[in-house]
Amino acid sequence: MDNVQLNSCPVPNGVLIIIGGHENKDGKIETKVQERDNKPRVILEDFVRLAGGDDCVIEVVTTASEDGDDLFNDYLKVFSELGVKHIGHIHHNNRNEALDKILIERVNKANGIFFSGGDQLKLTSIYGGTEFLYQIKQRYIYHHLVLGGTSAGAMAMSTPMIFAGNKEVQQIAGAVKITTGLEFLKDVCVDTHFVDRGRFVRMAQVIATNPTCIGVGIEEDTAIIVKNGKETEVIGSGVVIIIEGFNIQGSNIVDFGSDDRIHIEDLNVKILSKGSKYQIPEDNPPHK
Question: Which range (17-31, 86-100, 212-226, 244-258) has the least confidence?
């Protein structure tokens, strides 16, 4: 037993910056909580800093959005203002486009890759199983690639990934739909716009389906920085809500299709803010 390697998965050399959406891009104060922060663009500034500063190469992936060009122009403006000179745009409308071999060369040259908001199911359905995604993971694990994602781009980084179930149906058992995300985090479900759009119940449903998973609900203009695949720190102006289900004593999550309202007993909840740290548990041994 002493010779058994309990965790044979490599510790990633890269960094994740997972954003709850609506991150401050222009440096203007938009909310009361931002008035207390003298660095309103701290999230995107940290992304650039961690990617290498002025000399870094950033690729902005807007595939999740229907307005890729307009969205890219927004990030081109802010990243340029932050001193970045090399900013590329990646956008695909279908899976066939994502098989272009030139993408691999661009991934290999990038120091940072940023996934915009939109529809997270577009990201997984277009990029799942592609050489493009495989190479991003290789660079994230074995090199210092910084991956940023906001809103849908953040939700897609985790597994499981929510793709349907709004506030009108989130109280009904089984009404929240999940699938496999891009798997940069295992047994972690990320939800965004968390406080602003009242998404606590839908995240709780996900955790009830498999209490091994951790729920990470991130408010707007707020992010977690993830290093070594498990060490997280909160930045930005809002809060992050952690939902743990290890001690769940009962729920009716298996009664899907009955239109029953969800009930879950003994969730554990943490509310974190700027500077708070959280260690993602490793209670489920990783697959080799």
Answer: 244-258
The 3-class SS string of 26-54 reads CCCCCCCHHHHCCCCCHHHHHHHHHHCHH
Residue 110 is encoded by which pair of tokens?
A: 């990038």
Given a cut of 70, whether residue 257 has pLDDT beyond it is no
Quote the tokens at residue 2: 């002493």
User: Do the bridges between strand 185-186 and strand 188-192 make them parallel or antiparallel, or are there none, so unpaired?
Assistant: unpaired
List the domain boundaries for the chain: 15-279
Of 183-192, 240-249, 260-269, which range is least confident?
Answer: 260-269
Tokens (6 digits) for 82: 């932050």
Q: 79-118 burial, b for 16+ CB within 10 Å, e for fewer? A: beebebeebeebbbeeeeebeeeebeebbeebbbbbbbbb
Superfamily of domain 15-279: Class I glutamine amidotransferase (GATase) domain (3.40.50.880)
Distance CA 200, CA 179 (A): 18
pTM for the predicted model, two decimal places? 0.91
